[in-house]
Amino acid sequence: MNTEYRILIKENREIKGGTCIPMTIPACFREDKSNFFIGEINNFKNLYFNKRLNNYGTCRFDILVDDTEANALISLCEYEVYIYKVTSTGDVLVWSGEQRRRTGSLVENHDDWCTIYCYDWFYALKDRYTAKTVTYSSIDAGLIAWQMINTSQLKTNGNFGITQGTITATQDRDRVYENQNIMEAISNLSDVIGGFDFEITNDKVFNVYTVKGDDLTDSLILEYGRNLQSVSIDEDFTTPCNNAIVLGEVIDGTELTRVDRPDTTTQAKYKLREMVLSADNVIDENTLNAKGDAMLYKYKEPLIKVTFEVMRGKVDITQFSLGDLIRLIIKKGCYNIDSTYRIFEWTVDHENDNTEKLSLILGELGI
């Protein structure tokens, strides 16, 4: 049994008095932060889960094919998964989402396992679209995002339980959507200069920030040889861009709207590196410019991915959040790193032998 994480299951609808629960589900109801869980998966292995800034996160874990109690808690798009980190001061909710996929393979006379794949609440909006035509004029971008979510949830059987949290004012936008995918629309509102950071929390609260994250550079210092071990470093510059070419909507029936956004400083340093982005539902030049500038901020300098084995009691997932600023120190051979980085993604890979690897994708402050 895993002693460091717990996997609890909840129905994706409100459980009221008199709700019928299948008898195969163990009677281990538990109330936590107003959530009523229908059961807990006790025997699992190879737990993996991650979160990404302004994007969706994933999770997977293995259960025995013959585990009747565990499999009674699996129902795709019907049951939800809540992962808790066990700590000395109480269990901490670190990930939640929907069950979406189950795969398995059977070999005679062996213990057979199946893998459960889950996606978080932002991914649920992949299955939602706006009305045929929706127009927003001079409305704050964060409010546009929330209004799309809220309108979709008002449809019959449309309520995911996502609620409005803090919507920090960022920039007014003009948008016309025609049968637009809502997850894509929110990503696009975020992925421009002057765009926002956002999250849907583990408790299903939608928040918008000018910039998400706290400065932890004094309190969270990751240093090889002190609280990091077995470090692997991936400095990724496979997709550089210092001239962003953005193609917008067709004008006059034949010609695409095009803007070029150069960064001359990095062109002089790295030579000309071009990338094309299609924004075929956009004609406004300012919006196209903002999308190009966002490409430059993301791709004009290398990203660094640091994967390391957790030293017990030194670093764990409860100590930081997406967007936080941390200090990274690695002094070894060709590596002479002592800089401040922002956390764009984290991944926990907890294997069957209770070893755990925590992976971070870090970026420069300007990205």
Structure in words:
- The chain has 367 residues and is mainly beta.
- Helices cover 14% and strands 44% of the residues.
- The chain has 6 helices and 23 strands.
- It has helices spanning 68-71, 121-124, 141-153, 182-190, 264-270, 285-299, and strands spanning 5-11, 30-32, 35-37, 39-41, 45-52, 58-64, 79-87, 90-104, 113-119, 134-140, 163-167, 172-177, 197-200, 205-209, 221-223, 228-236, 243-251, 255-262, 274-278, 303-310, 325-332, 335-350, 356-363.
- Strands 1, 4, 5, 6, 7, 8, 9, 15, 16, 20, 21, 22 and 23 form a 13-stranded mixed sheet that branches. It has a 3-stranded mixed sheet with strand order 11-14-13, covered by helices on one side. It has a 3-stranded mixed sheet with strand order 18-17-19.
- A hairpin with a 3-residue loop joins strand 17 and strand 18 (255-262).
- Helix 3 runs antiparallel to helix 4 (182-190).
- The longest helix is centred in the C-terminal third of the chain and has 15 residues, at 285-299.
- It is globular and about 65 Å long.
